[in-house]
Design goal:
6-stranded mixed sheet, 4-stranded antiparallel sheet, binds adenosine-5'-triphosphate, binds magnesium ion
Length: 260
């Protein structure tokens, strides 16, 4: 059995890591024409945290992630990742720094095999090291695909993948950049209950490896199980943040879901 002292030491380590801010969003506003999709959003995510983001359809969750990952540029505000201001940085440069996200609608490179799908992100992820050669890339790609149960399909095209396999390939592509932060944007949507559990297990395992994970989901029991802290976005505003059991009881959150 584990000695209490070593348990305490490990807990202290996790707490120390969490006290380090990995991602900070400062007063971000994003407009599409006259429509305000994000309104003055500020938040901080500690290294090692498991975060859930909830909010009704169209509330701005994906837009927030697009601003964080660099796909969209906010009209005002700042995004700081690992202590560095990345607000104006291209998405691939953010990926190089360890910021990875999956897409709500899987976006594999069609016409490539699963292994080949990982080559570009693997090259981005090889930060600070020599450019890996083909054999090294293939080995890394196979390791990631194996870890997600996709090893058997490594040299097949993506055309015949099932929904959960496509979701796993999205996760694999995100993992290929060797992320410090992984944002999973509705990786569980449309999956069966057992498949949801499978994806949940994968996200827990990644968090266990020290990756900070933000899970955007509508599946509330998955959010409740996974998240140490839940953020709720409604109409482009962050209306609540806290432990999951507090957030589900939060009057404004309840109003947003149930209506007045
Ligand atoms: N590129 C765009 N151009 C114009 N409007 C957009 C664009 N992207 C998002 N929107 C609008 O911004 C709002 C927020 O969209 P977003 O995709 O961020 O919502 P979401 O919270 O991720 O919703 P869902 O839960 O359905 O995925 C929506 O009203 C959406 O129609
Ligand atoms: Mg979305």
């Amino acid at each position: 059995m584990e000695a209490p002292a070593s348990r305490d030491a490990r807990r202290a380590t996790k707490e120390d890591r969490m006290s380090e801010t990995l991602l900070a969003v400062h007063n971000v506003t994003k407009r599409f024409g006259s429509f305000v999709a994000l309104s003055d959003i500020s938040l901080e995510i500690g290294a090692g945290e498991r975060i859930g983001i909830i909010g009704p359809n169209g509330s701005g969750k994906t837009t927030l992630i697009n601003c964080v990952s660099g796909r969209l540029r906010p009209e005002s505000g700042r995004v700081v990742f690992g202590g560095e201001d990345v607000t104006r940085m291209q998405p691939h440069r953010r990926a190089q720094r360890g910021l990875a996200r999956t897409f709500q609608i899987p976006q594999p490179f069609h016409g490539m095999t699963l292994v080949e799908n990982l080559y570009v992100p693997l090259e981005y992820g090889a930060r600070g090291t020599e450019r890996p050669d083909r054999a090294a890339l293939r080995e890394s790609a196979l390791r990631i695909l194996d870890s997600l149960g996709l090893g058997g399909k490594a040299d097949e095209g993506c055309g015949a993948l099932s929904q959960i396999e496509l979701r796993k390939l999205e996760l694999a592509r995100a993992l290929a950049v060797n992320p410090r932060l992984l944002v999973s944007d509705e990786a569980m949507a449309g999956l069966s209950a057992s498949e949801v559990d499978e994806v949940l297990d994968i996200l827990f395992a990644l968090a266990g490896r020290g990756i900070t994970v933000i899970m955007i989901e509508h599946i509330m029991h998955a959010i409740m199980r996974f998240s140490e802290r839940v953020l709720c976005i409604v109409s482009g505003k962050l209306i609540a943040a806290g432990p999951p059991d507090e957030i589900v009881r939060h009057p404004e959150v309840q109003r947003a879901y149930i209506g007045d």
